[in-house]
Amino acid sequence: MKSNSLKNLAIIMDGNGRWAQQRGLRRTKGHEAGIEVIRDITTYCANHTEMESVTFYAFSTENWKRPKLEVEFLMKLLDRYLKKELITYELENIRFIAIGDLEKFSAKLQETIAITAEKTKNNTKLTQVLALNYGGRDEIIRAANRVVKQGEAITEASLGLALDTPYQDIDLLIRTSGEQRLSNYLLWQLSYSELAFTPTFWPDFNTLELQQIIDDFKNRKRRFGGI
Length: 227
Ligand code: FPP
Fold this sequence. Notes:
Blueprint: E1 8-12, H1 16-22, H2 27-48, E2 53-60, H3 68-92, E3 94-99, H4 107-120, E4 126-134, H5 136-149, H6 156-162, E5 172-175, E6 194-197, H7 207-218
Parallel strand pairs: 1-2, 1-5, 2-4, 3-4, 5-6
Bound molecules: farnesyl diphosphate (FPP).
The site of farnesyl diphosphate has 19 residues, from helix 1, helix 2 and helix 3.
């Protein structure tokens, strides 16, 4: 039997806060540790898989409800991460793009995001997508408005093309930390995805576990509604 091809992977990185609390640390320490895992997983996907993209849920439209200090910390961490990450993107030939409604971020952060995307736009090995101020419903609404503005009819093709993502289908979604829900993530693109849930908290997730999940995915029967 031919194994499934894995071109587009999506990840919900959950459990940073609980990982930190278990160690008697502040939640922010969990986010700092989580950043390192994003780098490891992205580099692994670029070098050891056939993947074209990996999309990380870094900040949702609902995450603004968190305490102000945690939100501010995440914003600073993101700015620092992107600036530092440029070397990795260049060395590993990785393109960076952001999806989501970026207008709510500070001008400085928007600039860092735009510069990073611009500088890496010709890299070809893998696209790392960060979902920032992202919500699946919000994305579909913004896409529908774009189609209407262009005077086109809303069809699966026109709406699909107007989405933030450069692809329409995610092959596999992984969520860490034992929670089993979609949390408004990539609602359109996850229509036929395979789902994998692991109890591991995101800061403890690693390439070994990723490869195990990929191996399991490869052998699943994907029917896409057929028989
Ligand atoms: C979930 O952990 C994690 C997030 C809020 C988003 C993921 C964020 C990172 C990995 C770090 C920041 C990344 C960037 C690129 C700035 P949680 O806080 O919900 O954990 P909990 O469910 O245990 O409370």
